[in-house]
């Protein structure tokens, strides 16, 4: 410890002697830093004054230099401006020279380049330069376009364009000229040269547009050579279908629609075989036939837009126009492959005023049709009643006509361009279904007293058929797409709960669910009424059978042959006759529900009102079993393989009543003992009892009178 203490004291002495030296060194360094800083401050002050004096000296030079730079920039801008003017004039001179030497292809190429320059210059604020450029392009474009158009029209005339005759005769006409190869070479040359003017043509020509209310899809301008080819047909169309011509009849839209379809058909072969290869070589991915069709379609759209306001409030004329337009659209799309994405007649029919009128007229004519179909003499008769394999649904004529009407309406509106318009038509269809359901209900109420009659059954078949068809439609792709569109609309408007939206989105429910549920409810009510009617008759017929003397009937051994109880005959005859009658009048699926509902009630009735209300000796129990298993159950064997499975109460009651005495005693002991529920259930299952409860079996055992005499 002493040594340790000494070492520590030495360390303290050493450190205490070193610290003052360090402090002195630090102070010295600080003094030196201070001196350096002062020197730097003096230098900074000197430099600052030097720079200020230099800036004052240089200021006039800067001003002179700035003025010179801005002058240079101004001159550069003027130079660039002059270069543009020079370039435009040079290009213009080149076009002039090429035209003087009749080198049209080069002139057209230069004009196309000039048009591209015009597009690039659009960002410039030099309005005069832009005007000069546009005027130059316009000047040469007109000259070139006029020249090429006249040459192109001349070639087309040699080919007898346009083809007013059908394709067979025009093909013969095309093969006639000896110089056909030269004509087609010239045709290709001029076509390609006109294509080069496309850019400048789009710059200078404002495309014809129908008003915005028609919501036509945006589409590029029709290529220039096709425009030239369309010109004679446009003239013919306007000549015949405008003004006071006899062919311009507002009640005959089929005239101009058929004319346009005929023109498309007449020219399709030529466009596919002669023009399309030229376009494929030239580069632009354009379909010649579709461009041609698009040009003619614009004539139809203009004509429709002009005619519709004139006949909007004449139901028959308006309806005829819509019918003709729909036929035209169908042929245009199916035969000539016109795409749905292009402007078409459905855009015109979708305009708000026209569309609402269309909906109104559609509803009016549908309701008229429903009135006539329900008042027809054959309304409740099936068209196919004599053809068994076709008439499975036993559909009355009015229901089939109604569903055909709905199908036709679907065909009419399925090509509308927007989902919102289609949804409005879907609502119309749902309203019509509901209206038809109400009419069926009214007719059904008139027939309630004859619930087994032919008309009542026909109404039930109609309800079942409509419900089945709507359920099938719910899985159709078209209606599934509408369901998705409806989902988006409902989500935006918050018109459905989250649960309902979820069911629609997951396809658990469909657009027709509300209608189907109402129809199913009506179907169930009508079937219940029929079952109740038959059941009342059955109960009436079973009165004698209920009073049978089950206690005193002879045993099986005492009879040579078991035979049906005479008192059961009215009951079985009623069941047989009504089942046959309804099997003939109801469709298979409905009749199946009917007999199963009836059997369920009958099973409980016989069990409660006949079996539990009587006591049975051995002969009575055997007779009951014979009546049930050999006579009642087989009545329904035509409709299912094991009818006894639908009479579980009766079947099991017969088993209990007909157990031999020993088995019955053993079963009674097990049920009355404290051996537990599982042992009792096992004993019941062993003798074939699964439906009846333990207490029911005990009651049935007590209804037996053939117990051995035990002396009690």
Automatic annotation (TrEMBL):
A Pfam family annotated for this UniProt entry: RINT1_TIP1
Gene Ontology terms: biological process: endoplasmic reticulum to Golgi vesicle-mediated transport; regulation of ER to Golgi vesicle-mediated transport; retrograde vesicle-mediated transport, Golgi to endoplasmic reticulum
InterPro entries registered for this protein in UniProt: EXOC6PINT-1/Sec15/Tip20_C_dom2, RINT1_Tip20
Domain of life of the organism encoding this protein: Eukaryota
Gene3D superfamilies: Dsl1p vesicle tethering complex, Tip20p subunit, domain D
One Gene Ontology term, aspect cellular component: Dsl1/NZR complex
Family label: Belongs to the RINT1 family.
Protein name: RAD50-interacting protein 1
Gene: RINT1
